[in-house]
Design brief:
Layout: H1 3-18, E1 36-39, H2 46-57, E2 60-65, H3 71-75, E3 78-85, E4 88-95, H4 99-111, E5 116-121, H5 131-140, E6 142-143, E7 146-147, E8 152-158, H6 172-175, E9 179-182, H7 187-197, H8 201-209, E10 216-220, E11 223-227, H9 229-244, H10 251-254, H11 261-281, H12 283-287, H13 293-301, H14 304-348, H15 351-375, H16 380-403, H17 408-448, H18 452-463, H19 465-474, H20 477-485, H21 488-500
Parallel strand pairs: 1-8, 1-9, 2-5, 5-8
Antiparallel strand pairs: 3-4, 6-7, 10-11
Helix pairs in contact: 1-2, 8-14, 11-14, 13-17, 14-15, 14-16, 14-17, 14-18, 14-19, 15-16, 16-17, 17-18, 17-20, 18-21
Amino acid sequence: MNIKQAKEQIKYAVKSYFTKDESGDFIIPVERQRPIFLMGPPGIGKTAIMEQIANELGVGIVTYSMTHHTRQSALGLPFIVQKTYGGKEYSVSEYTMSEIIASVYNRIENDGAKEGILFLDEINCVSETLAPSMLQFLQYKIFGTHRVPDGWIVVTAGNPPEYNNSVREFDIVTWDRLKRIDVEPDFKVWKEYAHAKGVHPAIITYLEIKKDDFYSIETTVDGKRFVTARGWVDLSDMIKLFERNSFKVDETLVIQYLQDPQIAKDFAVYYDLFQKYKSDYQINTILNGAASQEIVNRAENAKFDERLSLLGLIFDALSNNTRSIVSTEAMMRVLMATIKGLKGKIVSESVEKTIASLKKKAEEISEQANKAKRSGMMSAEDVKDNIEAAKVLQDMSQVIARDNPLNGEKAFFVVKQIFDAQNAILKKKVETTKAYIDNSLKFCNDAFGVGQEMVLLVTEMTADASCAHFLSRYGSEQYFKYNKELLINERQIEILNEIDELDL
């Protein structure tokens, strides 16, 4: 199965393990909650989906790579205690708490994560001294003499033997105590993730043209050559920073992440071409509905790979705008809930107390967001939105302190004014983005007509989470027009299959 299907299966399993009966006991007893084993090639996104699952379920997560652990760090250190059995004293070995188990208890104590996921990566590559204890852990969830706390689910991951010479085969007894999920690379699924995370459009568009370059591992006379999903994501992050700092992006950089010389060379060449398209087509003029006839004519006469690159640039701009709106909406929801909760206090309190209340609430929101981030219970995006809301609350307290209104009612009026100003900014973003979508689709129609290019652009917008949210909430006359005209649910599959068969 692909990584998206695997995520769904793991999520279902974790939720099932958390399910309790009327007495408050787990329906599946802890001792029978099979550890989940996610088997798949390296760099496919196994760790990323575990973080997503924890975020979505609102539970904690503790992650460890087992290749970094010795027997002592995983099990704890032995020490001798004296015990009496049958009236006779004996020296008995006990163990300090495992570093791994201790991390779970720390997460519970410090962040309040009573339920969570203990994720152990590369579990079938442990050292020889740790291997027997690892097998025992998988069967009984015990390291040394300490058990994983109730309410924490064990999820593990590993690579198949063909990808890692250090892999240790499990016996049937061990496999029979695990819930095994096998996962394979899938570009289509990864592309959804890439759009959501803002992966550089040059990478997404290149892989749209050369899908076979998405994931590749081969052995040559010169050694291993490989390209992974992780490599593309990390390369994207560095390209963005290089662009921000005006550093040159070339093959020297690319091959540091794509460890296949031919793929690295091909992408480096394409990146230069992509940047040229970005300059030549003046994407902002297309978004603003001001594209010249010369640009329209060039697009019309372009080869398919150039058209695909242009569509990638347009869609990236639209996706960035819709993601910004989704983020602003989330911030506004936090802000609105906070203001509603404080309204009674603000109106009835002195101005000094109002200022203190706003500052205190801002600090609480920031602290809770950072705490949730540490525990894995909140995504980085949600943390950012909460902290942004906290900053607005701080601004409100500063404006009230500066203007010194006469009473609580006047102070609340200031609060409402600032909130309304934030809402006005959101509305302006929405109107601008609607215009961008309409103008982009009109340009596409002017240049290509209602053909495969329009199908691709409308399909991307439909599949992208932020774009789909925007369109369902705010609409777009042009989008719904072309969506209907294309009979997208029926025709897009046929046309996309035709594109896949093209010799690019």
